[in-house]
Design goal:
This protein has 446 residues and is mainly β. The protein has seven helices and 18 strands. The chain has one domain: Outer membrane protein transport protein (OMPP1/FadL/TodX) (Porin). A hairpin with a 2-residue loop joins strand 13 and strand 14.
Length: 446
């Protein structure tokens, strides 16, 4: 019992608050939401998606500022029959998710800077905890009853918040060797910070004891076990808290190619090298004794291969296709990567139509695919394949100023796993997720 409760608190440190892939955010502009395919971009957001394509911008300065507002709900259902609650809901609210880009283009050369949350960017708040925390506590009435102390109820206060954000600061140099071919080199500096606060408090039970609790009233589990001489269980059911902050830095080299073989046709190719990232604990509270101050964990950002094609079907109708391969299996996540059965990928298709000179409407579709073993999925950290749909518009407010508005809805698959509880049986756990997001951005050219 004691070991299990401690491990339930330990896994708090592995709860991600990420969006899209396992640890990589591809949503880095308002245009992305309305098209879901930006790998061949020749707009300002090419700073992130296709740096070599920046050489097709007009000479001068180009700047853009975007913000996304993301609402996500994560639900875990566990049919373990001792639990008071079968459903646990966590909310991820991200009111501010900013991206900023600046480009200076002169003749064949473009220099650019980008800033944005490359991973994480939100806070996951599970106000009632999760099955991993409560399952063993829920067996206390069963255990005590078999000890000859009839017990029918338990209660507990469990909660945690996990916050994660990896800010990226990116610099690129792009050069057009001809009208048909350009290349870019870049470097991204990652500043990572995770914070986790969680507790298990006030475990209460109602054992009927002829001397200590003849009426079967609810009382402190830890105090009751101490009174009957069960010091082991008294320690296991005491209040426990964790308050840990993890920080680290890393660098992501990247290469980009842009091909412009014909009028209206653009091809983008980008490779981001793996970001070797180590996070160091700064521990304020550690009742479980498992988070030594200064301990280091591995949290690499996988390498990414990005391919994109954009084509003008007519003077007003434009289409694009983008593909990303994330090399998750090569990352170091302190062993968790061994449960990744194959690398994740996504495939996006977007179309936009110039309704007027000052108005463009667009829509996009994105398929995200994960192939993960049951050892990877848990109530605390899980990923699932999804179908996402984007829509939006660009409004030209003048010759120099653009406004982008967009929205996104994601429909997730619902993976589940069978969990074996020794001596009790096998039970099902199911994971669900809902995601809605909106973005707004301004681009200015001068």
């Amino acid at each position: 019992m004691k070991k299990t409760l401690i491990m339930a608190m330990v896994v708090l440190c592995f709860v991600p608050a990420s969006f899209a892939t396992l640890v990589t955010n591809m949503n880095q502009s308002a245009q992305y939401f309305r098209l879901l395919s930006r790998n061949a971009s020749t707009d300002i957001d090419a700073v992130f998606y296709n740096p070599a394509g920046l050489t097709l911008l007009k000479d001068g300065w180009h700047v853009a500022l975007y913000n996304q507002t993301i609402f996500q709900e994560k639900t875990v259902t566990n049919d373990f029959y001792f639990l008071n609650n079968k459903k646990y809901v966590g909310e991820v609210n991200v009111p501010v998710f900013p991206d900023f880009y600046a480009v200076y283009k002169k003749n064949r050369l473009a220099l650019s800077f980008g800033f944005g949350p490359n991973s994480g960017g939100g806070t996951a708040d599970f106000k009632k905890g999760l099955p991993a925390f409560e399952t063993q506590i829920s067996t206390l009435p069963y255990m005590l009853s078999h000890m000859g102390l009839p017990t029918t109820q338990y209660s507990v206060d469990i909660a945690f918040k996990g916050k994660s954000v990896f800010y990226g600061f990116q610099m690129n140099a792009s050069y057009a060797f001809s009208e048909m071919f350009a290349a870019a080199v870049g470097m991204r500096y990652i500043s990572a910070e995770n914070s986790y606060v969680g507790h298990i408090r006030n475990i209460m039970i109602n054992p009927r004891h002829p001397l200590l609790n003849p009426t079967g009233a609810m009382l402190s589990a830890s105090q009751f076990f101490a009174l009957i001489g069960q010091s082991y269980y008294a320690a296991a059911t005491r209040d426990m808290e964790v308050d840990v902050e993890q920080t680290g830095t890393g660098f992501t080299p990247l290469l980009s190619l842009s091909l412009h073989p014909a009028e209206g046709l653009n091809i983008g190719i980008k490779y981001e090298f793996i970001t070797k990232l180590k996070l160091t604990n700064k521990t304020t509270k550690d009742d479980v004794g498992m988070f030594p101050d200064g301990e280091v964990i591995h949290n690499d950002i996988p390498a990414i291969l990005s391919l994109g094609v954009a084509y003008d079907l007519t003077t007003k109708l434009h289409a694009s296709v983008s593909y990303n391969m994330f090399f998750d299996k090569d990352a170091n996540w302190d062993g968790r990567e061994k449960f990744v059965e194959s690398n994740s990928w996504d495939l996006g298709v977007g179309v936009e139509y110039d309704v007027l000179n000052a108005l463009t409407l667009s829509a996009g579709y994105l398929r995200t695919k994960f192939t993960l073993g049951s050892g990877y999925q848990s109530d605390l950290a899980h990923d699932m394949s999804a179908n996402s749909f984007g829509f939006g518009a660009r409004i030209r407010l003048g010759q120099k100023l653009d406004l982008d508005l967009s929205g996104l809805y994601s429909a997730y698959e619902k993976p589940e796993k069978q969990i074996d509880y020794p001596g009790i049986g096998t039970f099902r756990e199911k994971y669900e997720r809902k995601n809605v997001a909106f973005a707004v951005g301004f681009g200015y050219h001068f």
